[in-house]
Amino acid sequence: MVERISDAASASRTVDLSKTLLSLTASIICKIAFGRNHLVEPERRIDVLRTSGEARAVLGSFCFEDHFGWVGSIVDKVTGLSSKLQGVFVELDSFYGVLIQDHLDKEKEEEDPEDFIDVLLRMSEDRSGSVHVSRDHVKAVLMNIFIGATDTSAATLVWAMTALKKNLGVMSKAQREVRSSVGNKGFVDEDDLLGLPYLKAVVKETLRLYPPAPLLVPRETTQRCILSGYEIRPTKTPVYINAQAIGRDGECWESAEEFWPERFLGSNVDFRGQSFELMPFGGGRRVCPGVGLAAVTLELALADLLYSFDWELAEGMEEEDDVDIEAMPGLTMHKKIPLCLRPKIKN
Ligand code: HEM
């Protein structure tokens, strides 16, 4: 990422951060979960970024079948949602099929580290336990991870840069912290994160105001329950949790609409599912299992963007107020207009 942005900086070009950061997070997940970066060898694969974008769009659409059963399924056929869903998922299914076959075919050396697919395949070979992991289970987990991890992390980074560009005082405070803490080493690594409390607060503040999954993931009740005195009787009642409204609730947060990371300095409020006023990763047994990886990815990528570059407005933008904060509707909250900024290599 840094090389690509450096090239743009040398040529005084504008960078579309929405695109650059999506390909960064997709590459990270491909390397960690699938063993290598499949985005750099598109000739054998589907265009993963395009297809996952389409998957995101159909998943974010209103599905009548979910709410009105078989009658709804007819409406979904008429609106074309069913065939879009089918098309996208057939394509992604074949991508995961190729990844699995690659892992089955590869000659394994003793010292080769296992990636996520190796672990899932090893589990699927083990038939001694009570739960059998089938090939479809493996594909479903890969689907969850790829779509759940890349999009959300990229959207958070774009919102963080948007908020910083609109709040220049916060941007320069975070930049001063990163640059003085990391020094002249030339890059930021994981060990540096311990010395960056303000940057961590910036990430928390971004997740508070712009949780990338504003309604978390839709769930349904498994039994009758009572919530704030209301009885939710039929099982399988859909449940939506509005994490964005919770994050902006004036009863929990002082100056709730303000981007003010200082509120987290010296505070125990965290996003790992224990603080009910900050729930961007959900909570309980179905809390996002990727929260640890997400936190490190967000902090490292943001620290690198601030350490290596100064960021100027793109041509045609006069002042910080021109950076808009309008969001697109959908399962993941993306910025409606891509964030385009001009990087300058730091002196
Ligand atoms: C900023 C980044 C991320 C955000 C905001 C986020 C948010 C969420 C949320 C809200 C849920 C649903 C939790 C619930 O229903 O209570 C979820 C589930 C999930 N996330 Fe994440 N996530 C992020 C990154 C990641 C990463 C990096 C991974 C994988 C490496 C990941 C993998 C998953 C999976 C597999 C699930 C489904 C868990 C289940 O259904 O039990 N996520 N995530």
TrEMBL record:
Domain of life: Eukaryota
Keywords: Heme, Iron, Membrane, Metal-binding, Monooxygenase, Oxidoreductase, Transmembrane, Transmembrane helix
Cell compartment(s), UniProt: Membrane
Membrane topology classification: Single-pass membrane protein
Keyword check for Acetylation: no
Pfam families: p450
Coiled-coil stretches noted in the UniProt entry, renumbered to this chain: none
CC cofactor: heme
Principal location class: membrane
Protein family (similarity comment): Belongs to the cytochrome P450 family.
Protein name, as recorded: Cytochrome P450 71A1-like
